[in-house]
Amino acid sequence: MGERLICIQKVRGSNPLSSTKEPQEAKPSSTYLSIGQNPRTQLAITLDCLIEGFLLSCRVETKSPKTISFYRDILRNFQWYLNKFNIETIDATTIRSFLGYVKDTVNRWDSTNTRANRMVSPTTVKSYYVALSVLFNWAVREHNPMATVKKPKLQQKTVKGLDKELILQLISSLNGRDIRTLRNKTMLYIFLDTGLRLSELANLKMSDIDLQTGIIKTNGRGNKERFARIGIKTQKALWSYIAHRPVDTEYVWQGKDNNKMATDSIAQMIRNLGKKNGIRLSPHKLRH
Question: What residues make up the domain containing 195?
Fold first, then answer.
């Protein structure tokens, strides 16, 4: 990607340039982020450098690799768009045009990839909006080119959960007494009983469980601690699994060689359970 100089306005009162020094002149071919009129409140920096600093900040804030990859892919596409159409100014109009390109263009990014050659959903367009908002809100605390761009609206849909008959069918399909079946059935019970996220369930430790009170402690998004209550049937299933575990380990769910079961392995187990019962199933679906 070619470098693009942009100007970003800092929060008032935090001028990055000394009051005794004039800002360096930008090159004529620079692309500017049009925000402020006062040159003393503007900082010249390449878009590549801005994005690099933003992604570094995400890592420092211990955001998940999946989240960082999400931002990186979208911002890479934004850079491609600027280069492809020789955009010289990044402002609200630029961002609206970019979102319109994502929404209405079938053959995006000059790619032969199947996903880039079909229309995207409103959710995808909103994802692009969110990624750009996070970038510019991180870089500019008071003014940014997203300020006048309205968030794309999504149709509110009621998420339908699993029918009671189907839940009973899933539970009945796990009728073995081997340790693997006991483990999978207990996971299913906890998903259905508590609505835990996949990551929360995968990282459960023995110290997080109080079978006497039926309380489970988890760390959710943003490392926020919360508590969930489990019913008597789930408590019984959990006790049975723990009592039959071949090795006493810190983490509750044991996988291959009695090591901690990977998050992806749990998700795959749920998908396979759904296939066995003739439905599309996922950990997120169980939350509903």
Answer: 164-287
